[in-house]
Amino acid sequence: xxxxLRDMALFVEVVKARGFRRASDVLGIPNSTLSRxxxxxEKSIGLRLLHRTTRKIELTEAGQVYFERCKxxxxxxxxxxxxxxxxxxxxxxxxxxxxxxxxxxxYLAPVIAEFAQQYPGITFDFDLAPRxxxxxxxxxxxxIRMGGSENSQLISRLLVTLTPYLYASPGYLARVGEPGKPExxxxxxxxxxxxxxxxELHSGKQVTTVPVSxxxxxxxxxxxxxxxxxxMGIILLPQEIVAEALISGKLKRILPDWQGTPQPxxxxxxxRLMPAKTQRFIxxxxxxxxxxxxxx
Length: 296
Fold this sequence. Notes:
By secondary structure, the chain is α+β, with helices and mostly antiparallel strands. It is built from nine helices and twelve strands.
């Protein structure tokens, strides 16, 4: 029975890694041993679970059914093992997190530092690349995402909702003038995440969509903020991202009666059955971000 359960867990890891070689690297088990164990599992069941090719593996119909059942069992077993130990009282282990780089640096860093001080048994492995990691096939515990995920199979937990406002530097406004109404943004340099496009702005029950354009189009919030500070144009960002520049007077809020569409920030996980380290991290972020307890 023990071998049967172990092989079941190995099968789950092979499917999640989408191949024997990657699963072998993750598990630290020789590729040949892993392949042999899965073959013995198939023999004991009496059904083929995987179609093997030189490049990849694919689940058979029986394999898909078996994977869905086994994954829940393996997750439950892992969670039960951790809860019976001391991890729930004092979480430990490596916490692997995917983070949006600019949001993490400008906003999350103080919260993460406080969390690390409170839980010294946890070590951290952060991925701040702009790509969206695959939580199913890559070894991440949680991904923090602005705007959520297109993958409906992932579990999302709302951490906070950020409202963007319009900002420009005193230097830019002195040179070009300050817009008095949203329609005037079309005549200004607007620094945007996408080239051209539109900004949807709200004032109470009023909603207006303004076409915007500018010389700069980029995919970095940090660079957006930096260019605005350097008098290059108007930006639409959450206050939390530009707080330091506001305090120092390098940026000024304009059109104060108008705001952008609120943007949710989610913690995404591949399963509801989270180890204590992940559960505590998500709870900590939600409590501190929604409560506005963010340092500098």
